[in-house]
Structure to design on (450 residues):
């Protein structure tokens, strides 16, 4: 159950007809978008988030108020430390229990300035603060990029804990790197066929 | 890079070398191109001392520059902070910055006379409006990832302006600020030429009227050195301030 519903979406991007009469009504709380590069996964996430604005005649559209999107480039402020970047969004001191392991995992570099961190470390901080913020709908574009296997495992556990703890929350993510995760089992949706797409096909494996 | 300092040395002495060579090889008369030795000894002719005039000029320049930069960035943040400010202020700033600052000098003389206030204000207004537009443009072009982040956490514009916009725009403003410096140098000279009893611009003005070409050359060189030192200082401050590049 989610309050996300996109129906009859028509969308063109630089004369490319990307979506036509497109529908996406996820029934699960954890959804994975799959498809080849350039098929419109990021665009769909931006549309859901509202970064790409859709007028009423382009689609009928329901989404939660509290959406949080993480793009592939990190949005940490480079002049702040990891800790300050996390505090930028919340002053919460009591970390929910599903983030305990994650918090410990960050401790070796959390006091470093963001510009001194590796891509992977910045990505870990970025995902951590998003989970701490607890949005109703978390939109993730390739969240596992730059992460090594151990980090992917920590993040996966936290995501699964997040979904268990916040029963009103949902996730839509795109990822190429989720095949082997033992902690996550999202419902997979495929962009099938050719553009313009009109639906995502739930892949029941 | 190997031999870096040699190349820098060549660049530094190139113009003096050309000057000296042209002067002596073609035996050009002093009234067209002054003798380098005369230029250097002309320091002694200036009363009160050249140091006195230089201090005055640098002081005016620095005050004008600092206030101009601060005001420019502040205005830029205002434009970014609220659409209302933007709609009201943008046409004002755009029209004010399109007036060549050198053309406004007679008005400043008329309104402020020979006072120091007028000279500071010439520099401040000459650079502030351009800096405001540059700051605003930098913030308008904020990368999408930051826009998405602020939207995700529904951050207040106030917090965003203080914690993000100020450091972010500073990190991108170095080219504009270096340009503002040379603009400010030009404005300081001209403002002193037109309405002053002391300062390097005043010296140029009096030297010009007595055809003391050597003094004009001397002061041009001094301004060049001042500009160079300040430019290096600004770059140094930025490299310490903006570590994350």
């Amino acid at each position: 159950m989610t309050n996300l519903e996109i129906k009859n979406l028509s969308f063109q991007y630089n004369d490319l007809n990307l979506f036509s009469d497109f529908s996406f009504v996820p029934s699960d709380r954890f959804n994975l978008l799959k498809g080849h590069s350039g098929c419109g996964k990021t665009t769909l996430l931006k549309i859901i988030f509202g970064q790409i604005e859709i007028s009423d005649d382009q689609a009928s559209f329901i989404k939660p108020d509290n959406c949080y999107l993480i793009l592939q480039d990190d949005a940490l402020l480079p002049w702040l430390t990891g800790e300050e970047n996390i505090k930028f969004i919340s002053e919460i001191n009591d970390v929910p229990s599903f983030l305990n392991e994650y918090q410990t995992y960050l401790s070796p570099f959390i006091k470093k300035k963001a510009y001194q961190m590796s891509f992977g470390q910045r990505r870990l901080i970025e995902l951590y603060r998003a989970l701490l913020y607890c949005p109703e709908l978390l939109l993730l574009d390739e969240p596992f990029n730059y992460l090594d296997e151990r980090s992917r495992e920590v993040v996966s556990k936290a995501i699964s804990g997040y979904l268990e703890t916040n029963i009103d929350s949902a996730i839509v993510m795109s990822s190429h790197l989720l095949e082997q995760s033992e902690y996550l089992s999202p419902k997979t949706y495929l962009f099938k066929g050719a553009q313009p797409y009109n639906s995502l096909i739930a892949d029941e494996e | 890079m190997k031999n870096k300092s040699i190349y820098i040395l060549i660049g530094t002495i190139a113009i003096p070398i050309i000057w000296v060579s042209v002067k002596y090889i073609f035996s050009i008369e002093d009234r067209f191109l002054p003798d380098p030795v005369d230029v250097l000894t002309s320091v002694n002719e200036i009363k009160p001392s050249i140091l006195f005039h230089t201090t005055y000029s640098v002081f005016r320049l620095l005050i004008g520059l600092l206030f101009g930069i601060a005001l420019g960035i502040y205005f830029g943040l205002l434009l970014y902070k609220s659409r209302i400010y933007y709609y009201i202020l943008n046409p004002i700033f755009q029209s004010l910055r399109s007036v060549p600052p050198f053309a406004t000098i007679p008005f400043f003389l008329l309104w402020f006379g020979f006072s120091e206030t007028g000279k500071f204000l010439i520099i401040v207004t000459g650079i502030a409006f351009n800096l405001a537009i540059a700051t605003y443009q930098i913030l308008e072009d904020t990368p999408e990832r930051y826009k998405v982040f602020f939207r995700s956490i529904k951050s207040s514009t106030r917090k965003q302006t203080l914690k993000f916009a100020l450091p972010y725009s500073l990190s991108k403003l170095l080219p504009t600020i270096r340009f503002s410096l040379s603009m400010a140098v030009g404005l300081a000279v001209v403002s002193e030429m037109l309405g002053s009893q002391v300062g390097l611009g005043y010296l140029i003005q009096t030297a010009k009227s007595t055809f003391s070409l050597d003094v004009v050359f001397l002061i041009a060189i001094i301004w060049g050195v001042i500009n160079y030192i300040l430019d290096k200082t600004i770059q140094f401050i930025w490299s310490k301030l903006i570590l994350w590049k």
Notes: DSSP finds five helices and nine strands in chain A. The two ends of chain A are 20 Å apart (CA to CA). Helices of chain A lie at 41-49, 82-87, 100-106, 119-133, 149-165.
